[in-house]
């Protein structure tokens, strides 16, 4: 029987989770992870607001990554 990093056998839930979600056919049924043009067919104002919101979220994520990187550099002395 396989063991995890702590040397323990996987539990019943863990076995079920991997049996269910590691299967390629299950992932195939879920569909693609990304969709092209996800707000097609909506009003122009709605699409513009969605694009603005998306860009704001991306900026926030970039800023968080930059802060995390700077904090890591300060703690490691680089």
Structure characterization notes:
- With 78 residues, the chain is an all-alpha fold.
- The chain has two domains: 1-33, no CATH class; 35-78.
- Helix content is 64%, strand content 0%.
- The chain contains three helices and no strands.
- It has helices at residues 12-21, 24-30, 44-76.
- The protein is flat.
- The mean pLDDT is 80.
Query: What proportion of the residues is helical, as a percent range?
Result: 55-70%
* Apparent shape: flat
Largest sheet: number of strands, sense, barrel closure: none
Rounded average pLDDT: 80
How many distinct beta strands?
0
Distance between the termini: 44 Å
Write the H/E string, N to C.
HHH
Low-confidence stretches: none
Alpha carbon gyration radius: 21 Å
Q: DSSP strand (E) fraction?
A: under 5%
Overall structural class, as computed from helix and strand content, comes to: mainly alpha
Provide the domain count.
2
- Supply the number of helical segments: 3
Summarize the structure.
By secondary structure, the chain is mainly α. The chain is 64% helix and 0% strand.
List the helices and strands and how they pair.
Elements: H1 12-21, H2 24-30, H3 44-76
Which features characterize this protein?
78 residues, mainly alpha, 2 domains, 3 helices, 64% helix
